[in-house]
Every structure is written in structure tokens, then in C-alpha cells.
Amino acid sequence: MIPFLDLQKINCQYREELTKCMSEVLDSGWYLLGDQLKRFEKNLSEYIGVKHVIGVANGLDALRLILKAYLELNYLKEGDEVIAPANTYIASILAISDNRLKPILVEPDIHTYNIDIENIEEKITKKTRAIMIVHLYGRVVFSNQLKNLAKKYDLKIIEDNAQAIGAEWKNKKTGNLGDAAGFSFYPGKNLGALGNAGAVATNDDDLASCIRDLANYGSNKKYINIYKGLNSRLDELQAAILDVKLKYLDCENQKRQQIARYYIDHIQNDQIILPDDPKNEKEHVWHLFVIRLKSRQRLQAYLSTQGVKTLIHYPVPPHRQKAYKEYNQQSFPITERIHQQVLSLPISGAHSHKQVEKITYLLNSYHQ
Ligand SMILES: *Cc1c(COP(=O)(O)O)cnc(C)c1O
User: Distance, CA 162 to ligand 1 centroid (Å)?
Assistant: First the structure.
């Protein structure tokens, strides 16, 4: 059997270091807001090249807190519009609507599966205050055109960097391209914790300090509450684990890039559309390797009978979910086509060359 993602194998590569750091936390007797968190925040901020990193409970909270802080700082007000890609994972949209802001959905580019920057300007109104970009599947979405657009209309750029940690655009890491960024360390992400974890990155001092307080009950001093905050902390145990795994992130991402290279160079099947390959390989860290085809169900079933597990990211777009009834009548044909046709192949640092060869062979000999 070739699993889609073998987290046991990925994490047990670092068994010694991980068990050591976990017992250190156990022995320290200090489990929240301590030295482990400080160290991880510092190391991640240096890695990203950004002034502030704030560890939080998960990726959704990271995005929610960014928007909540902009509300507290009076940059945003209830009902303001935030532009986001229609085909993102629902968390990006939930972060917006949870803050009583209005998600304005924009169609993606059918080649990169990222928000089509050409389609943004026509969606901007007097109420638009921010653009949430999502580096979907690990592929960077950014351009000078986007920067100029944000400048022209005075919009904040918020990066949902849950899937692209380690990727770069013109020698700058994702998470340092816009005004603020949310990271997820969900176990299956390129940098995964052994549980929930997330972070915010920003160069904005006021925003950073506001988010730090908001994530800690709106308090900057014990029992003194300046905001109606929440409890969203990255605990010491996860921070220690992430700090160990951060050292190996580039290596893990390189293994993903090598597998993607092999798939792209060797998969040859007229029915299969391969993912777009950026000219600069640093612009993709291949959180997912997503192919597209008309009858994916049949291919998925075939691969399954051959012992290869695949997944679909994602089967239903946010605007077609019951949770977003008010969007159900809107039409996003490119988004809908993507959701009907995509299939994710196994890719990770724990997949062997042999496994990748076998998957490629199966795809090349598949005819419906
Ligand atoms: C995983 C993910 C999130 C949310 O992260 P959690 O840590 O699960 O809350 C947000 N956006 C995208 C694009 C994601 O893939």
C-alpha cells in the first residue's frame, strides 16, 4: 500500500530529538507562554525574515486574529469587504465571516489554481479593505500588479500561508510578502505539529502587539483586559516540537520538489492535466501535487485497487456549502470545474523514489 501521507514515518525520522524536547517540557513544569514558545517564535521570524511572529492555537485562529486586530485598530469595521479566492479551503473564508466581514469571492486561474489577480480589480468597491491571498497547494501567488492594486485602493494584503511555508517570491519568503500572514502547523502541513498549532507573521508593530494581547484574553498584563479577546495559544509542547522540525523544513520541502519534478517529467497521459510548473522552482513547495482530469472517480478507484491512496482537495467549494447558503446561488464556473476534476497524488518527504515510480507507471499505463 502506498499511503497518501504517512505522518508516523515523517515524525519518527526525528524520534530522538522529539522525545528529548518533549521530556524537557515535561520536566520544566511550565506548559504555556514560556521559553519554548519564545524560541520558536524567534527562529520562525528569522526563517521568514519578518519582524514579529506570534504563536497561536491553529491556522484558522491566526487568520481570525489578524482580521480581529485590524477591527480593534479601526482599520476595518463590521461589514467591510475582504477579497478571497473562491476555491480556497473554507478556513480562509470562515476567518472573514467570523469577524462579521464580507468575503468577496474571486475566480482562480485555471492553470495555477491560485486567485486570478486580473479578476480582482472589478470586485473592488468602496467597502473593500483587504485582499486575502492563499498560496494554494504550496504555490506562491504574488506579483507587482497585486502590490500596485493594494496601494492604489489602500488595501491590506493578508497571506493565508497555511500551505506554502518555505516558498519564496523574488528571494522573499511567503509570510513576508503582504501586511500580515497566517500559518498553520496542522499535522499534515509541510511543517506539522503533533496536534494543533498556528502562527501570525507581520512587520507591523501595532498589529503584532494587538494580536498578542487578543490571543491572550485581550490582556497585556495579568487580569487587565484591554480587548474582548480569546484564548488562542501555541503551547510549549507543540512549540518545542515545531522548533525541532523547523530545522528540517527546507530538506522536507526539497524532497517534495524532487518528487514533483519526477512526476512532471515522467507522467505522460493525454487524459491527465499536470499542475503548472513555475519557472522559479522556489515558488512552489508542493504541499499537494494536484492533477486534473474529466473522470477522476474512475482513476481514483483504479489507483485504489492498485494500492495507491489519493485524496481530493477539495470536493466542494465554500460557495456551495450549506454553511454559506447565502452564496449558493452565485456562480464560479472555474472554481466548480476545479472541484469536480482535481485529484491529489501522494507527495511527501516520506515517499520513496520507488513509490513515486510506481505511481507514475500506473498513471502512464491507465486508459479509461
Ligand atoms: C490548513 C489550512 C488552514 C487552517 O489551518 P488549521 O490549523 O487547520 O486551523 C487555513 N487555510 C488553509 C488554506 C489551510 O490549508
Answer: 5
Q: Mention every residue, 6+ apart, whose C-beta is less than 8 A from residue 88.
A: 134, 136, 160, 318
Whether the per-residue pLDDT at 138 is higher than 80: the answer is yes
Percentages of the chain per state (helix, strand, coil), in multiples of 5: 45, 15, 40
Angstrom distances, CA of residue 342 to CA of 208, 313, 338: 37, 7, 6
Phi first, then psi: what are they for 303, rounded to 5°? -60, -35
Q: Which three cell numbers stand for residue 91?
A: 478556513
Percentage of the chain exceeding pLDDT 90: 99
Beta carbons of 233 and 33 less than 8 angstroms apart: yes
As a whole-number percent, the residues of the chain with pLDDT over 70 amount to 100
- Confidence (pLDDT) at 368: 75
Q: Which atom of ligand 1 is nearest to the CA of 91?
A: 10
Res 237: pLDDT = 98
Interatomic CA distance for residues 286 and 136, integer angstroms: 9
Nearest-5° Cα angle at 140, 183 to 75: 55
What are 102-119's pLDDT values in tens digits?
999 999 999 999 999 999
| 202, containing H or E segment | strand 198-202
Integer Cα distance of 45 and 51 in angstroms: 6
> What DSSP element (H or E) covers 224?
strand 224-225
What does the pLDDT read at residue 185? 98
Whose CA is closest to atom 14 on ligand 1?
Answer: 162
- What spacing in Å lies between the alpha carbon of 198 and ligand 1's midpoint? 9
Report in angstroms the alpha-carbon separations of 207 from 152, 185, 299, 364, 368. 22, 21, 47, 50, 53
Residue nearest to atom 6 of ligand 1 (CA): 59
- CA–CA distance, 303 with 336 (Å, rounded to integer): 24
pLDDT at 208 over 90: yes
Cα 229 → chain centroid: 24
